[in-house]
DNA polymerase III subunit epsilon (Lacrimispora amygdalina), 222 residues
Amino acid sequence: MTASELTGRRLNQYIENYVVFDLETTGVDTQEDSIIEISAVKVKNHVITDQFNQLINPGTHIPAGATRINGITDEMVKEAPGLLEVLPDFLSFIEGEVLVGHNIQSFDLLFLYRVAGELPGISLPNDYIDTLYMARERLPQLHRHRLTDIAAHFNLSTEGAHRALYDCMMNQQCYEQMGKLSGTEEVYICPQCGGLLKKRNGRFGVFYGCTNYPRCRFTKNG
């Protein structure tokens, strides 16, 4: 199976139906460390309708540094299932959905792609939206774009941060708030310069034009 069959595309849109997901891990090495919690919330018409939440036994000691961040201990995962038991249910939960998450392109998805690449018949072709990229585009005034920074900007609660399910719920609220910055319709990002594409009325009908015009002249049909 090729890499393109295993992975989806990164989208730059504000949409109404999606799944926010988050992982907690034993460390930051996407090729060596292990997943110890998977959580996700399913969103329909901008409202959370279902959730997935599961601790995972990594089969190894959880380092103290990881526990300090996410609060997950060896004792908490002692009776938890292993990743191979959990993965089918998680893949079923996200099947056919666009995934949303914070820094997932460089972190969470790499853990899942590694597992998918090691197991026959497993793939993760879902397209995804990384809210880190969205925040850098729509909240340039922030000095940092961590999920907690974005939540604080919108006066959202950060209680429970760094546990996967709480992070999913916080991420969902941040995504919805960032989407509203450019209206309630779907928003597109210019693939050439990264600026926003705004709907305009032209001589030949509706189209989307880059807000960085005239420096960038990219357009797409409405």
